[in-house]
Amino acid sequence: MNPKRKQRLMLVLLGTCGVAVTVLLVLFALGQNMNFFYSPSDIARGEAPFDRQIRAGGMVREGSVLRDPTSLRVSFVVTDFVEDVTVEYEGILPDLFREGDGVVAIGRLNGDGIVRASEVLARHDETYMPVEIADALERAGYDSSKYDY
Questions:
Q1: 57 and 125, same structural domain?
Q2: What is the C-alpha separation between 76 and 99, in angstroms, rounded?
Q3: 3-state DSSP assignment of residue 109
Q4: Is residue 149 one of the residues assigned to a domain?
Q5: Per residue of the chain (149 residues), what is the pLDDT tens digit?
Q6: Residue 111 lies in a domain
Q7: Which are the contacts of 97, defined by CB distance < 8 A and separation ≥ 6?
Q8: Distance CA 130, CA 109 (A)
Q9: Which of 16, 20, 42, 87 could cross-link with 47 by S-S, CB 3.0 to 4.6 Å?
């Protein structure tokens, strides 16, 4: 093999390895930043991880909202009508946050089964429900056909 061919082959191999390493690093970074959706039943079955950010959603159980009168701390129960999960949040809740309505809490699940939310999302009108929540409620046997997806 002449030296020019050998040099060209080495450059092609180095370029291929560089692209492969770059793709692997991008995939790793994307995998670390994904927020997977878990229903209260999924969390109760132990399917939700403790060490990463998740999205937990369902309906806010009637009578479950507890507000701290001295701070912006609030806790509430999210249900899929089979299982419940407690969510704790400190901040201003969205205007459309209501008991009995759908909600998605973004945060981390602690060892006690409580979601410490960094963000709470409420649906934007009376008939909209995120697809993830509707699917979780349908798996639990709840009729969510009155909502838009």
A1: yes
A2: 9
A3: strand
A4: no
A5: 677 888 888 888 888 888 888 888 877 776 655 668 898 988 989 888 887 889 998 889 999 999 999 999 999 999 988 899 999 999 999 988 989 888 999 999 998 889 999 999 986 555 556 677 777 777 776 665 555 44
A6: yes
A7: 60, 103, 120, 122
A8: 21
A9: 42
DSSP string, 17-86: HHHHHHHHHHHHHHHHH--EEE-HHHHHTT-S-SSSEEEEEEEEPTT--EE-TTSSEEEEEEE-SS-EEE
State which residues form the domain around 30. 1-34
Is this model's pTM higher than 0.85 or not? no
Check whether residue 17 and residue 76 sit in a common domain: no
